[in-house]
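Here is an idea for our session: we take a single protein and study its fold together. To get us started, please write out a protein record for me. Once you have written the record down, we can walk along the chain together.
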Amino acid sequence: MRYRWWLTVAAGLFVVGLVLGLVMPDGTATDILTEELAALKELGTILGPFQATTVLFIFVKNVVALLFSFIFSPVLCLIPVLTLLLNAGLLSFISAIVIQENSLGLLLAGLLPHGIFEIPAIIIGEAAALSFGAMVIITAFSPERRKLLLPNLKQNLRYLAIACALLVPAAIIETYLTPLLLLR
């Protein structure tokens, strides 16, 4: 199948995740996020804004997440699907809270500058993972299609590289520009 189709599937899953995050009962995600927020606060004391180590940490964390998803995508494509749904769900859930407690302006200042690069990177990378995972599954049941696996892998590695390249400006903007916008 063409990569464009997988891109549409990935974007669709992301939209479904956004909707699920908006309709999620308040207590459900709050319980899950309590421990994560405590860990993030502790990490925030180590990695602050305007530091090259923060850029590197954010970039490496995001690339490792994409690579993990890509490598384990042949397991019924579960990891890419869950990654898209959970990331989008958390994004919309937290966005709703920020808008409710602060303002739309604060949300846009904190999300848009780096999100312009990071969200497409996630969708592009996860589309590559879905495409590769599906091809591995197909070739497991259809030996005559095995010759398609290597070209599929090469194509999807190119898209994965594009996704990783988009994560560079996202990490830089998130470290150096976003804190300035949030301080206003």
